[in-house]
Amino acid sequence: MVIVAILKVRQEFADQFREYEHRVAAIMQKHGGAIERTVVVPADDNGDTFREIHLIRFPHRDGFMAYQTDPDRKGLESLRQTAIVQTDVFIGEDGPDYHAANSV
């Protein structure tokens, strides 16, 4: 399964956000998941927040659910609340390959 997470982060707490993400990535790995790629979208006009997009992969839904309920992850909730304003999560599967070499 593929997960796209779009995180809106308080600029002033970027260091805490990075710490949180490093720690939850280790917890994710314990359940078979991995952050495969990140994209940082620069701060908005007022400079208070920026967005970071994560492409995450889990081999199956059970691993993702175990990660979601992991007590170690839950223990990091205050750090998460300090840094992250909003999270949008989309769960899907791999889609078509649009590489130019494969075009019709």
Structural write-up:
The protein has 104 residues and is α+β, with helices and mostly antiparallel strands. The protein has one domain (2-92): Alpha-Beta Plaits. 36% of the residues lie in helices and 34% in strands. It has four helices and four strands. The chain has helices at residues 14-30, 61-69, 71-74, 77-83, and strands at 2-10, 34-41, 49-57, 84-92. The chain has a four-stranded antiparallel beta sheet. A hairpin with a 7-residue loop joins β2 and β3. The longest helix has 17 residues, at 14-30. It is flat, with a radius of gyration of 15 Å.
Number of helices: 4
Helix content class: 25-40%
Shape-level CATH architecture: 2-Layer Sandwich
Q: Calculate Rg over CA atoms.
A: 15 Å
The number of E-state strands comes to 4
> How far is the N terminus from the C terminus?
27 Å
